[in-house]
Amino acid sequence: SFAALVLDVDHFKQINDTHGHDAGDQVLQQLAGLLNSNTRGGDYAFRHGGEEFLVLLVDITPDKAMQVAEGLRQRISSEPFKLSNQQSLRVTASIGVAVHDGHPDYQRLLRRADQALYQAKHRGRNCCVLQEN
To answer: Which of 51, 70, 79, 132 is catalytic?
Structure first.
């Protein structure tokens, strides 16, 4: 079994508007590094577009996928993101989680993870939501 985590940086537009697009790019680069260094060797992290990332977790249960997502969320919120002007930002992320249910269409899995992300945003951001089958 495997799971898809769709992660979105909360209030990313505000980061770009307040600190500039270079600062936004620095946040995304640091977040990519954080995801790569805080996932298991067989897992994969990708930039999914804009301020979204996709993390694929292999050989995992729904409970463990939520534990991983929550660990990433906590790590992101506790990490100071350093900017080139010596400032640092606190960043939070919302994460949608969906576990592969055997359906052959991988797009369906991504849509379910996106739906969970949408629910996380509507619950106030900086949280993780598991999309049930």
So the answer is: 51
